[in-house]
Amino acid sequence: MKSTGIIRRVDELGRVVIPIEIRNKFGIAEKDPIEIYVDGSNIVLKKYEESCIFCGNTKNLSEYKNKLICDKCAENIAGAIASEKSED
Asked: pTM score > 0.70 for this model?
């Protein structure tokens, strides 16, 4: 990880301000959702991107019953279902 040299304090509500330079660099706008990860002893903030529930792909997504699935996984599932039906 690369240090930015920027230090911020956590306020009484647990909030931390992300500096505008960093928000601009990563395309984070006001009201954008941010994901929070824990990696060992590190807290990682990442701009949230919708992704396939099976493989995590963020491209070519379709929604089915309020869940996102990529084209490749949809094809794999369709193929698996077709092969199960042909075995019956």
From this structure: no
